[in-house]
Design a protein that fits this description.
Length: 202
């Protein structure tokens, strides 16, 4: 009888251990962030265009700009880096899809100093004055109450024709922790900061 009880106790202990192991292994992965979703969607739309084959096309990229200023400067300083993130990430996807991407920020020589070795520059005196390309990736961002609408385009530099286009909305995630009426870009998310209600009902 004692042997039978010992076997049952061991079996229960083993099952308990398996349940703990299954819980850890079955833990769900975090959901993909809205900005990453937008990058994936826009890239796919541009590449999947049936009337334009991106393979071996000579492409350069430009910073995605805001619709009101057509520059990277936004009324909301927290979002200024969004245009560069979209530009660099989408052009990476186009490279992976077979596009012949040219880097216009590549300097004519590597610069060495105490901080490291650098090849990218925005100094007009250091970069090539003539980059051979046929198409440019560009995009316009428009802020709305529900998020940022991104319209991306591939434009033929010779005749200004738009050969591929994509549209995606980066939805805003409400954030009640702050008291200002603005948007914040953090960890791949756009947060809408609602204004505190205060004593408005008085």
């Amino acid at each position: 009888m004692n042997l039978k009880m010992s076997i049952m106790a061991f079996a229960l202990l083993a099952l308990s251990g398996c349940q703990t192991f299954d819980t850890i292994v079955g833990k769900k992965e975090p959901m993909e962030q809205p900005v990453e979703t937008a990058i994936t969607s826009i890239s796919h739309q541009l590449i999947a265009n049936s009337s334009f084959d991106i393979a071996d096309k000579r492409i350069v990229s430009s910073t995605f700009v805001w619709s009101d200023t057509l520059t990277s400067v936004s009324k909301d300083s927290e979002l200024m880096e969004l245009g560069t993130i979209l530009q660099e990430s989408i052009i990476t996807s186009l490279t992976q899809a077979g596009g012949d991407v040219r880097e216009i920020k590549s300097a004519n020589a590597i610069q060495l100093n105490m901080g490291g070795e650098f090849i990218l520059s925005r100094d007009i005196e250091r970069v090539a004055h003539n980059t051979q390309a046929d198409y440019v990736l560009t995009g316009i961002m428009t802020p709305t109450n529900y998020g940022t609408v991104v319209n991306a385009k591939l434009i033929n530099l010779h005749n200004k024709r738009v050969v591929a286009a994509a549209r995606q909305v980066i939805a805003i995630t409400p954030d009640s922790r702050t008291s200002e009426n603005s948007s914040t870009f953090k960890d791949g998310l756009l947060y809408r900061n609602h204004q505190s209600q205060g004593n408005h009902d008085e």
